[in-house]
Specification:
The structure holds three protein chains of three kinds. By secondary structure, chain A is mostly helical. Chain A has two domains: 152 residues, Cyclin-like (Cyclin A, domain 1, Orthogonal Bundle); 128 residues, Cyclin A, domain 1 (Orthogonal Bundle), CATH 1.10.472. Chain A contains 19 helices and no strands. Helices cover 32% and strands 16% of the residues of chain B. In chain B, the strands form three sheets. In chain B, strands 1-2-3-5-4 form a five-stranded antiparallel β-sheet. Chain B has a three-stranded antiparallel β-sheet with strand order 6-8-9. A two-stranded antiparallel ribbon of chain B has the order 7-10. The longest helix of chain B is centred in the middle third of the chain and has 20 residues. The chains are: A mainly alpha, B alpha+beta, C mainly alpha. Chains A and C meet through helix 1, helix 11, helix 12, helix 14 and helix 17 of A and helix 11 and helix 12 of C.
Chain lengths: 375, 321, 338
């Protein structure tokens, strides 16, 4: 078999491989994308959000305009014109803002001392929710809590709504529960999430088998080294794997290997070579450069074998490392600014009233100022 | 994706109502395929969506197998969650109870085979069903058996996670659960399948305990009281007690209990109902058991006995929701 | 002189001069190309690397190791004739069933005899050989068909014999098993009777009668049961007999597939065993995994009693490590959309 069999379209045998099991998961079918696809979806969701916010604004705007004809007749063309008032959130800003909020999920989960599984699922729910929704429709604050609450239930870590809301500031059970169904619907009613943590543990075990048994692959690879590597990789998954977009582009085992690779490329590459190039010989022999022809036939583990797969895998892992680090960082001020915009997009009435208030105050000041001058 | 979907299906009549769901029969408009719609009430519970509903949706969305009930679609209507399931007119309990139907050994083999295939698929996906019993094994019009009701299912989690021992309907509950075990495995499902296998041969429940205490007594009277020697570490389980010590049954006693069973059938039955979960066979070795290779061959699903004449018996569809 | 030389020839390899007297385990082999006798170790030495010329001076025929065989007949001429006959009969392999007339069949056999005689005695050998080769070429397909038919028969016979042997064995096993159980039962009964006699004030005759009654009932039911088991065996035996099996198979040609493909037989990993002694302080584990966190649970009796196994934890993680490793989303999703 060659790696061509691996594209999913040409599999002839009816045997269901472990890869096929993954291909059948909703995570692969509904929640895995090419980069272009993801970009397109996000763009259209942002557009949808803008349309929604605009419509909401228009409705409120017309009403207030009718109510306060005097001030609008004065400023309607300038300060109170729609163009000046409306400042919606761009795609870029939206991404930054969500990134800022997703860190709160980790904080909240840690606060409740929830297991990694719950934290990671909540994060996945949150990211999936905002693929098809915009912060201009649903403010991330409550969505975040709802995701966490739902993830806790889904991962068998049930917590009653009252004890959940109690320590959260200004959050009523209703705020969380009202969104539960909407979140579930946006998740297309799929709530099984495959994470890279257990695959990582599997690799921790398999590294030991491949690199240490029956004797160490090289003198400097020890169980302690592999143990350290595992710990670093776990931290990597928490720091880079959770927040970035990699879970949309790569499968959990690939992300796990990326975590290993970025933590120690040398040992990880050694593992991959021995695993997939059947390089069981010591490094100093020429075996390493063996052509894939002979190799590919012999090894009985993964179906597609040889350098082709090895290359594809290493390429994929490296890309995954790269992608994990291109998340949208933002400063606190930036986030606060976007947060403000987000608030007004969701509450146009407050935006308009604030402006009117400001204008009235200004007017009052202008009227007062001659008197002030007298004093 | 919400309101439109409602028009894709018709709800024709109500066939059952439970604490958290109502079941309707209906059709998929486009294909005219018969379907069942399980409408789950939301907003009824203090803590939001019910755990059983969450589990059912979670696992059925992932499992696609000939012997697992198919979740065709999920949609929402007026804030209710609707599960569109394939229509399955009958279940194994109804067939077992219908004394007018004769089970041939090949029929029993066929149902057991289909059950094990479905269970194997769940286990391969790391999912425990935790409520296997005849009335959760539904029968499709073409004779295929489908495992249903995933309201108690869960995936096996972290190595040190506690699981609830209060699972599985009493008569099908494995001894480790009766002893309050919190770190049990796929073996609890295998036990249940073993007990169902016995019930198929006997045509009456094999271990019908009157209550949880009686269940222990019934189980051990039939299969012997577990001790440290035949089940190492059993005495460390939370609720272990061995007040009444029954000897394990001899092969001869088992033979008399299941007079029509072949030796291979008894081998498989005994291997699925081992008291010590570590000795119980798993779904893979059960499927590879010689019982399935010896003759008679399993009946093809289409030729299996069906509910006598009456295709749509009301009572058969009023199952637990 | 001659006799002694012949005798010595029988006992000494002409190539390496090993003497049977000194190496009593020595075996001679011959190759039907030239029938020269060579000892086994010489054959190994000379022909292991590929075809080589016969080491006898003036012979030099190219010989292959796999064609060497033990000499069966003392007389090399007979050995040769037998080989020739074997070869000819695989080509002229019709059986009596292939002839409508016995006379034709006899004619056919006689023809075979002539060919064998000619080849064995070098009478018109080259022509006969050419004829034989031509016949084989011309009738290739029929010959093969007949060969297959024959081997099928042989296999059936072997299968049948095997089945009979197995049936006997099974019956014996069950009988022995039941006898053992009976013995056990009798012992138990005797003990019960003794207990009752010593502990109860019932009539001793009644107790004994009841016991006899019980064992009579039991032995009757046992007989019926043995009969039933035997019937079952016979029935499965019937089905194993080649002819009968075909009838069954024709009804349903699809082979039994217990998993219907829902299984990976070859795992992408080699799982090590759980450590024998779980010692979290030892970090060099031979042929097992080192993992203090998980391994500590293997000491927990409550876990173990519930069926929890370290191996299951390992297996689950390893399964998931390879679940989707070969799934390249970017490529596969692109392939799907185009």
């Amino acid at each position: 078999m060659t790696s061509k069999d691996n594209d999913g379209s040409e599999r002839k045998s009816s045997r269901v491989s472990t890869d096929d099991l993954y291909r059948r998961s909703t995570q692969f079918k509904l929640w895995s994308f090419t980069k272009d696809e993801l970009e397109t979806i996000r763009k259209s969701s942002n557009e949808k959000g803008k349309t929604y916010a605009n419509a909401k604004f228009d409705k409120v705007y017309e009403r207030i305009k009718a109510e306060q004809t005097d001030i609008f007749s004065k400023y309607g063309g300038a300060e109170l014109s729609k163009n000046v008032l409306v400042d919606l959130i761009t795609l870029q800003e939206e991404r930054k803002y969500l990134n800022f909020y997703s860190k709160n999920i980790i904080q909240a989960a840690n606060f409740f001392q929830m297991p990694t599984q719950v934290k990671a699922s909540a994060m996945a729910f949150f990211k999936r929710f905002y693929l098809f929704n915009s912060v201009m429709q649903y403010h991330p604050k409550y969505v975040l809590y709802t995701c966490l609450f739902l993830a806790a239930k889904s991962e068998n870590y049930f917590i009653s709504i009252n004890s959940f809301c109690e320590p959260l500031q200004k959050t009523e059970p209703k705020d969380v529960l009202d969104l539960e169904f909407i979140v579930l619907q946006s998740l297309k009613f799929t709530i099984m999430v495959h994470h890279p943590f257990r695959p990582l543990y599997g690799f921790f075990l398999d590294f030991q088998e491949v690199l240490l048994q029956p004797s160490p692959a090289s003198s400097d690879i020890t169980i302690d080294k592999i143990g350290q590597l595992y710990d670093q990789a776990k931290k990597w998954l928490n720091d880079h794997g959770l927040i970035s977009d990699v879970s949309f582009f790569y499968t959990p085992p690939q992300i796990a290997l990326a975590a290993m690779y970025d933590s120690n490329p040398r040992i990880t590459e050694k593992y991959l070579r021995r695993k997939f190039l059947k390089d069981k010989e010591p490094l100093n022999t020429i075996k390493e450069e063996e052509p894939d022809g002979v190799d590919a036939q012999q090894k009985d583990s993964l179906p597609p074998k040889g350098t082709e797969v090895f290359d594809l895998l290493v390429k994929t892992i490296r890309k995954c490392v790269e992608d994990s680090k291109t998340s949208q960082e933002s400063t606190l001020e930036e986030s606060t600014k976007i947060g403000e915009k987000c608030f007004f997009a969701n509450n146009p009435e407050k935006l308009i009233n604030k402006k009117i208030k400001k204008l009235k105050k200004l007017e009052a000041q202008e009227q007062e100022s001659p008197q002030e001058a007298k004093v | 994706m919400t309101e439109v979907n409602e028009l894709k299906y018709s709800k024709e009549r109500k066939v059952g109502e439970g604490t958290y769901a109502v079941v309707y029969l209906g059709k998929q408009m486009k294909t005219k395929r018969s379907i069942a719609i399980k409408e789950i009430k939301t907003g009824l519970f203090k803590d939001g969506l019910d755990m059983s509903a969450i589990r059912e949706v979670k696992y059925l969305q992932e499992l696609k197998h000939l012997n697992v009930i198919e979740l065709i679609d999920v949609f929402s209507s007026a804030n209710n969650l609707n599960l569109v399931l394939e229509f399955l007119p009958c279940d194994l309990e109804v067939l077992i109870k219908d004394q007018s139907i004769i089970f041939k050994p090949s029929d029993i083999k066929s149902w057991l085979l289909m059950t094990l295939r479905g269970v194997h698929h769940c286990h391969r996906n790391f999912i425990l069903h935790r409520d296997l019993k005849p009335n959760n094994l539904l029968i499709a019009p073409d004779g295929q058996l489908k495992i249903a009701d995933f309201g108690l299912a869960r995936s096996l989690g972290n190595p040190n996670e506690d699981l609830s021992p209060m699972v599985v309907t009493r008569w099908y509950r494995a001894p480790e659960l009766l002893f309050g075990a919190k770190h049990y495995t796929y073996a609890v499902d295998i036990w249940a399948v073993g007990i169902i296998f016995a019930e198929l041969m006997l045509r009456i429940p094999y271990l019908p305990g009157k209550d949880d205490v009686d269940q222990l007594d019934v189980t051990f009277r039939a299969l012997g009281t577990p001790t440290e020697s035949n089940w190492p570490n059993v005495s460390s389980l939370p609720l272990y007690n061995a007040l009444k010590v029954y000897p394990p049954p001899s092969r001869q006693e088992i033979r008399l209990r299941f007079s029509a069973a072949t030796e291979k059938a008894l081998d498989l039955l005994m291997s699925m109902t081992q008291l010590d979960p570590s000795n119980r066979c798993d779904s893979t070795s059960a499927l590879l058991h010689e019982y399935f290779l010896e003759l008679p061959k399993h009946t093809t699903p289409a030729q299996l006995p069906k509910k006598g004449g009456v295709q749509e018996d009301e009572s058969s569809k009023r199952r637990k929701l | 002189m001659n006799i002694t030389e012949d005798e010595r020839g029988n006992d000494m390899c002409p190539i390496c001069r090993t003497d049977r007297y000194l190496s009593p385990n020595m075996n001679f082999l011959i190759n039907p190309e030239c029938y020269h006798k060579i000892c086994e170790s010489c054959v190994d030495r000379i022909f292991s690397l590929g075809p080589a010329p016969c080491p006898y001076a003036k012979c030099g025929k190219i010989l292959r190791k796999n064609k060497f065989k033990k000499q069966i007949f003392d007389d090399i001429n007979i050995e040769r004739e037998v080989d020739i006959r074997k070869r000819v009969s695989t080509i002229y392999n019709k059986t009596q069933d292939d002839f409508e007339d016995l006379k034709d069949y006899n004619q056919y056999l006689e023809n075979i005899e002539n060919i064998v005689f000619n080849l064995a005695n070098d009478q018109d050998a080259s022509n006969t050989e050419a004829e034989l080769v031509a016949y084989e070429k011309e009738h290739k397909v029929e010959i093969l068909e007949r060969q297959m038919r024959q081997s099928q028969k042989n296999a059936d016979l072997a299968q049948y014999q095997e089945a009979v042997a197995r049936l006997k064995q099974e019956k014996l096993k069950i009988q022995q098993h039941m006898e053992m159980e009976d013995l056990e039962f009798k012992k138990q009964q005797r003990q019960e009777v003794l207990d009752k006699l010593s502990n109860s004030n019932a009539n001793s005759d009644d107790i004994i009668n009841q016991a006899t009654n019980n064992s009579l009932k039991r032995s009757n039911s046992r007989k019926r049961q043995l009969q039933q088991i035997n019937n079952q065996l016979e029935q499965s035996f019937e089905n194993m007999i080649p002819g009968n099996q075909k009838k069954v198979e024709e009804g349903n040609k699809t082979p039994f597939t217990p998993f219907m493909g829902d299984r990976m037989i070859e795992k992408p990993y080699r799982m090590l065993a759980a450590p024998e002694i779980v010692d979290i302080n030892v970090s060099s584990v031979v042929n097992s995994y080192y993992d203090p966190f998980v391994n500590q649970f293997a000491k927990n009796k409550e876990f173990l009693g519930a069926g929890w196994r370290l191996e299951a934890v390992y297996e689950r993680a390893l399964e998931e490590a390879f679940m989707g490793l070969g799934c390249f989303i970017e490529e596969e999703k692109k392939a799907n959309t185009t």
